[in-house]
Amino acid sequence: MSRTADERAAAASGGTVDVNWFYEASVWVTLPLFLIVFVVASCGIVVGLRPVVARLADDRGEWDRALGHVIGTFGVFFGILLALVAVSVYENLAHTRQVAIEEASRVGALYRASSGLPGGDGDRMHEALGDYLRAVIDGDFPAQQRQVLPTASDPQVDEMDALLESVEVGTLGEQAEYKQVLESYDAFIEARRARIDATALALPPMLWAVIWVGAAINAVLIAFIAVRGLRLHLLMAGLLAVFIGLVIFVTADMDHPYAGAISIDAGAFERVLEQVVDESG
């Protein structure tokens, strides 16, 4: 059975073919569902461990002192872990936004610089750049949203390569213009590579495993608190679960820069296409 282009690209990049529903679905569906599951699991742990705590906590004073030290120490380390992970993921998102903006600006600079190419080479370069922007907007970014390395704009890059290799310059002025175009093209290729490489940005699975184990331990420690009223105990566990769940949800949503509710879109390329290419054309 033949495979689609997306499947071949995913296999080449070491990714998976199946799309993660978490990033495809609306945040108004995933967020409530995630929090409900998180809170229900936390409260279920509380209900399940209350009889065990009632049997073990003979000396409430000693139990509370020991548990207080454990919860305090664990809370510090788990809180630091969540904070560092959230900051790291946000920095990846900010970096990806910057490289996308950088590439779009490099395309605009190359478009302006190529106006000095001799003969009709400048017009052909302009046309290729316009096609490139449309391929990035309509092809590359949808693929990156599916966490697949994009290939839609590769033909336009090959076309620009061939065009620049075929340019013939004679006068010193044409040579200077051609050199400037080559420098702009090299900068554009580097920015493009950075934008594509950001598709694979994600936290290591081992780190996610540590986060989930930490969340489970936190729920267990909350369940170990000897609270007389079940409703109060569930309220405490539920509120803490909501906050931790929100932090984990936002971190997971930002983990893949081009996918999810908090993601990088093709807005910078659309602006260059509208303000530079279409206006000039």
TrEMBL record:
Coiled coil (residue ranges): none
The organism's place on the tree of life at top rank: Bacteria
UniProt cross-references to Pfam families, sorted A to Z: Bestrophin-like (PF14023)
UniProtKB keywords: Membrane, Transmembrane, Transmembrane helix
TM helices/strands, residue ranges: 27-49, 70-90, 206-227, 234-252
Protein name, per record: DUF4239 domain-containing protein
Organism of origin: Agromyces aurantiacus
Lineage: Bacteria, Bacillati, Actinomycetota, Actinomycetes, Micrococcales
